[in-house]
């Protein structure tokens, strides 16, 4: 006979919800376990336990990653901090070629947080986890006094399995390789900037938050020797490419005109003097593939829902090791360096 | 994008560039010293680097990146003043984003923010006024910065605060004015500029007439230019055509935005609220007469300089810093002893390395490979 689950009646998070007593049990059982609801989590043990043989059947290497999510505002067009926390960690696994399997969820809640908002975020996490085919199997909750946090911080840790023969690494880029992105860059960063409401711009911008593991697996079917891949989250495409150039000791040249950027995002960048290539993305990857296979990989990406606007945006070249160059529409060339700190809007 | 892509057409750029190359050859076939063209405005500097225009130009044309980035000409002492205001109790200090990282003698506003000062980034002075409306128990100070481009919006904000009777809003005016600055450059003995790309946004406010002295007294041409790559190239072509003909006139390439007589409403708001200071200190250029503005008596209750204790100290730039010579075009950024070594975007010594419109930052971030390798 299954035990009756506890119900959370409070409308606001208080310090009691982090104190380890009944209030905390109400929160965990109702909001988290009640929503994530899977066999491993429902046992309410201190740890999740896995059958190794089932994982081993998928591949030879375990991929393991963690990330923490803080964002203002916590809800924005196209998603919320919950969808970020799931897809972000799923994508960190996916770009290694791994098939994501299990996630943990650590929550730091600020006293005064509305329970309704928390429920919406947790439901988003469940929905995103279902779409990504992962289970949230363990978690942790802490409450900090009002003013000591910003509504909600989430940490997710993920485990996935890398199939045999996949060896993706930032250090693998070779001259002649092509650089591919899976669609419009900068949507998430621009959407968050706009959602803060400081700009009073009348543009419709949505986050691009989406899981990438299926797209990656489809790419690996036609190109198992794919050289390097990263999701272009904080720091954007520019940062990922600089990391590749540095790790592989090669130069990368981008063709500015071939980089897909939405008109709305370009508009935000024009007004503020910012560069979309440094904006965060939550559903975009940058792949470095052998030149002779680039067209095949691109076609596979274009036919996948997560890669409809994919494009080859540049190539790995000899010389100038560690540098990323951008060829402008006029044939001029400039360096695209790592960003120092955050991008700041220009005065005029 | 409408009204943007038209000014980034590569084919059109190619045609203009061909004419620029031809004209440059015709003007100075045997001249050893290249033609020096100064773009006064930081917005132009940014576009020139962003689109890689400099390397497309003939070697006979040397672009000199002038003093038109208001953040870059901010002396260290002024940043110290901002920090001193921000450190006072119950103050919310508001500023444009790119002023956050400019180093003071001890810290930047960004560092002050990390050390418990309430420093907030705003996109316009009206945002600062809104913060004042929402925080009546605090003193909200706006760091007024920029040339005639940003001056009208600050003036209108002060007038709005007056109209609404808002008592907790203050302006720390560091606004500067362009004409005395260009004059100071022209009077500088250690430089030689053949012509100017005039600032587009400033001219939108002041119009064309205030530049006339450049042609009549100094016999140099100036072309008011827009900020898109084709604007800049076309303006350069117009300058070269004048130079070839031996003329020195003030022309307006940016007619779609800049009216010949300027913007009367904006100018009225500015003269209502501000008056010229006798002198104002610029980073690297020293004190320039009548180059800054302060709040008039009629609006003095909004004047942060009267409401707060401000140290107002003159802090000398580090001795080896050569910002001034770079600003005047005497040396290129990478010829400065500190460029790319002690002074880089992570640890800027001079403000020219801080703002993306600063010549040093632009060279460092967008510069040619060869330039970076020298560093």
From TrEMBL, chain A:
Instruction: Please state which protein family the record places this protein in.
Output: Belongs to the HypE family.
List, alphabetically, the InterPro entries matched: HypE, PurM-like_C_dom, PurM-like_C_sf, PurM-like_N, PurM-like_N_sf
What SUPFAM superfamilies does the record point to? PurM C-terminal domain-like, PurM N-terminal domain-like
Give start-end ranges for the coiled-coil region(s). Answer: none
Top-level taxon: Bacteria
- Domain PurM-like N-terminal, by residue range, is 59-162
Annotated ranges, domain PurM-like C-terminal: 174-326
**Protein's UniProt name:** Hydrogenase expression/formation protein HypE
From TrEMBL, chain B:
What's the name of the protein?
Hydrogenase maturation factor
- Specify the species: Amphritea atlantica
Which Pfam families does the annotation name? HypD
- Annotated family: Belongs to the HypD family.
Keyword annotations for this protein, in alphabetical order, are: Iron, Metal-binding
Q: Which Gene3D superfamilies match?
A: 6.10.20.100, HypD, alpha/beta domain 1
Keyword Metal-binding recorded: yes
């Amino acid at each position: 006979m299954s035990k009756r689950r506890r119900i959370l009646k409070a409308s606001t998070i208080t310090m009691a919800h982090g104190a380890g007593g009944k209030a905390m049990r109400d929160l965990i059982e109702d909001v988290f376990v009640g929503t994530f609801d899977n066999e491993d989590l429902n046992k309410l043990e201190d740890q999740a336990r896995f059958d190794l043989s089932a994982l081993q059947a998928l591949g030879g290497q375990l991929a393991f990653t963690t990330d923490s999510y803080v964002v203002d505002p916590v809800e924005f067009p196209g998603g919320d901090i919950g969808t970020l926390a799931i897809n972000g960690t799923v994508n960190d696994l996916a770009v290694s070629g791994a098939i994501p399997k299990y996630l943990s969820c650590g929550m730091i809640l600020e006293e005064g947080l509305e329970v309704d908002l928390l429920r919406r975020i947790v439901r988003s996490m469940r929905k995103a986890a279902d779409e990504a085919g992962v289970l949230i199997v363990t978690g942790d909750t802490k409450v900090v006094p009002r003013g000591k946090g910003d509504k909600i911080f989430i940490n997710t840790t993920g485990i996935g399995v890398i199939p045999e023969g996949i060896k993706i690494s930032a250090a693998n880029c070779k001259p002649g390789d092509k650089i591919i992105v899976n669609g419009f860059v900068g949507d998430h960063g621009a959407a968050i900037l706009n959602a803060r409401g400081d700009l009073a711009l009348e543009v419709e911008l949505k986050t691009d938050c989406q899981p990438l593991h299926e797209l990656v697996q489809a790419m690996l079917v036609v190109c198992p020797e794919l050289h390097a891949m990263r999701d272009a989250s904080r720091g954007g495409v520019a940062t990922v490419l600089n990391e590749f150039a540095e790790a592989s000791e090669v130069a990368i040249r981008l063709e500015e005109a071939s980089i897909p950027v939405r008109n709305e995002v370009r508009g935000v960048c024009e007004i503020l003097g910012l560069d979309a290539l440094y904006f965060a993305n939550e559903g975009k990857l940058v792949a470095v593939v052998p030149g002779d296979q680039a067209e095949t990989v691109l076609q596979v990406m274009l036919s996948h829902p997560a890669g409809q606007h994919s494009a080859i945006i540049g190539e790995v070249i000899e010389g100038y090791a560690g540098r990323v160059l951008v060829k402008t529409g006029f044939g001029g060339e400039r360096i695209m360096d790592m960003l120092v700190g955050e991008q700041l809007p220009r005065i005029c | 994008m409408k009204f943007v892509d038209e000014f980034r057409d590569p084919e059109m750029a190619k045609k203009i560039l061909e004419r620029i190359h031809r004209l440059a050859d015709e003007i100075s076939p045997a001249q050893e010293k290249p033609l020096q063209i100064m773009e006064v405005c930081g917005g132009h500097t940014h576009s020139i680097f962003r689109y890689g225009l400099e390397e497309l130009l003939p070697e006979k044309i040397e672009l000199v990146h002038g003093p038109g980035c208001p953040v870059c000409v901010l002396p260290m002492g002024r940043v110290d003043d901002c920090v001193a205001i921000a450190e006072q109790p119950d103050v919310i200090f508001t500023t444009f984003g790119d002023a956050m990282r400019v180093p003071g003698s001890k810290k930047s506003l960004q560092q002050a923010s990390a050390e418990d000062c309430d420093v907030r980034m705003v996109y316009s002075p009206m945002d600062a006024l809104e913060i004042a409306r929402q925080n009546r128990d605090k003193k909200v100070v706006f760091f007024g910065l920029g040339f005639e481009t940003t001056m009208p919006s600050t003036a209108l904000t002060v007038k709005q605060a007056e109209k609404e009777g808002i008592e907790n809003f203050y302006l720390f005016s560091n606004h500067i004015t362009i004409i005395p600055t260009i004059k100071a450059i022209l009077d500088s003995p250690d430089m030689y500029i053949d012509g100017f790309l005039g600032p587009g946004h400033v001219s939108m406010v002041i119009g064309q007439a205030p530049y006339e002295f450049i042609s009549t007294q100094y016999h140099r041409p100036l072309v008011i230019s827009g900020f898109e790559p084709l604007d800049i190239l076309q303006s350069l072509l117009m300058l070269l055509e004048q130079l070839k003909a031996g003329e020195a006139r003030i022309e307006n390439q940016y007619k779609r935005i800049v009216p010949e007589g300027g913007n009367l409403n904006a100018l009225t708001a500015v003269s209502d609220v501000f008056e010229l200071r006798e002198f104002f200190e610029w980073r690297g250029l020293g004190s320039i007469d009548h180059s800054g503005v302060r709040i008039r008596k009629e609006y003095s209750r909004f004047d942060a300089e009267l409401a707060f204790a401000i140290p107002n100290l003159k802090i000398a730039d580090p001795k080896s810093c050569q910002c001034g010579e770079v600003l005047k075009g005497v040396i290129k950024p990478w010829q400065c002893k500190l460029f790319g070594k002690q002074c880089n975007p992570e640890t800027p010594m001079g403000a020219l390395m801080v703002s993306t419109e600063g010549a040093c930052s632009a060279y460092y971030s967008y510069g040619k490979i060869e330039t970076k390798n020298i560093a």
